[in-house]
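Lay summary

Proteins are chains of building blocks that fold into shapes. Our project writes down both the chain and a compact code for its shape. Here are two examples, one after the other.
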Amino acid sequence: MINGRASVILFGALLLAACSSSGSSGTATPAPAPTTTTPPDAGPTPPSDEEQRTKAVQVMHDALLADVTALAQAVSDLKDAAPTPTGRGWDKTLDATAIASMRAAWIRARTAYEHIEGALAPLFPDIDTSIDARYDDFLADLAGQGGDAYLFDDKGVIGMHAVERVLYADVIPARVVTFEKALPGYVAAAMPATELEAADFKNKLCAKLVADTKTMLGEWTPAKIDVAIAYSGLVSLVEEQREKVVKASTSEEESRYSQRTMTDLRDNLAGTRTVYAAFQPWLLSRTNGGTDLDRAILSGFTALDAAYAAVSGEAIPEPPATWSAENPSAADLATPFGKLYVSVTSQVDRAKTESVVAKLDAAGALLGFAAPGK
């Protein structure tokens, strides 16, 4: 039994407990805010320009390595296929299989080189000249020596077009012969007519081309690639397409003996796209116009694609006899050659702000590369 005093104490304790319980059922007083906060995750840091440069170099190296390797292999196959019959030169009937094999290897080599020449030519100018200079270019340099009277050795006129001139000597267009006959030091194209000429074609002219392409393959390393020079080569590769078309109007185009300059143009454009892709992520990272420039550049490539697709076959359309590059007539511009000329020259004209070359120049400036000629 609880006495009176204890009852009062117990009642008071219960009342205090009840008040405490009632107070805890209301809204709790919020805890004071912390004095410091953790910032939200901002995501990965964008690559620096130096990292973008390094990545562009590596991507370009890896993308073009297959073509550099294919070039070296194709010219090696060409040399291996070259016949060296005893007591005679080449016979188009007896050596038909070998000649077909050499031509196929030459085409593979040409395709590979057209893909890569824009990037490699400015990086390895001496090798580019040795591999890819035209007959008329060599004769201009050899004018003081009277030209090059012997077609089959590793001196004077050498490289892919010297080999092409021999391999396709029997199918060279008459307009090309007419043009070349006017060159100082000209010697008519011919296949090897003697045992010695056949041996020299294989062991000298072709061997020189093999050596040059192997040198290029050995030199093609990221450490050898100057990214600014490589970008200028990309722009030059686009400009080269204009040069091919312009020179075709005077029978000076590159693959004029095999009559596949149109295919050269298509291969040039494919190589342009490959090299541009190495720089594209860097350009797109630029928030001050990179996306718009990328869109315009790709549109320019598409326009050139369409112009090349409109021409059937491997040979560039023959220019009309009345063609004048300085002042072409409306009738001449309406021919297949004229239409191609207009399409290419409009896209490869630095003075036209909407041309693909002008847009590539602007993209280069955005990436910090010097403008052409500066």
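And here is the second example, written the same way.
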Amino acid sequence: MSRKFYYVHAPVTQPRYASPMRDVRDQQLFRRVHEHDALHMRRLADVVIASILLAITAPLMLLVALAIRAESPGPILERETCIGRGRRFQMLKFRTIVHDPEHTIPVWARKATQVGRVLRHTRIEMLPQLINLLRGEMSITDPRGSPSILD
């Protein structure tokens, strides 16, 4: 009996003579394309989630607004200037402190209202930020804009 030997040749791989910079450039182009898609997906998720949460919490927000109005005069919502996504915007919150239109009380001495204490403890004061989400000024993944120290 004669034995037959078969030689199996491994595929020859071509050496890669590309520069590392070419790989970096390709990765950056790939990342830019996917970052653009990721931004659209994140925005879509923000709009869907904020819409659902607003629909669910609308009756609660109405009750809170009525309680704030009944307890003390003044606006129902506070506006805080923040910086997000490279620009300034007005972040909305329910008012939890005594309204001082003449600004006679220093900021550190302002007292929380009774409704305001409950709102702060339960974090319900932040529900109007869902409106900021719908406007595109904030994102759920980065919910708080940076407070503006310029104002």
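What can we say about the second shape? Strands lie at 77-84, 87-94, 146-147.
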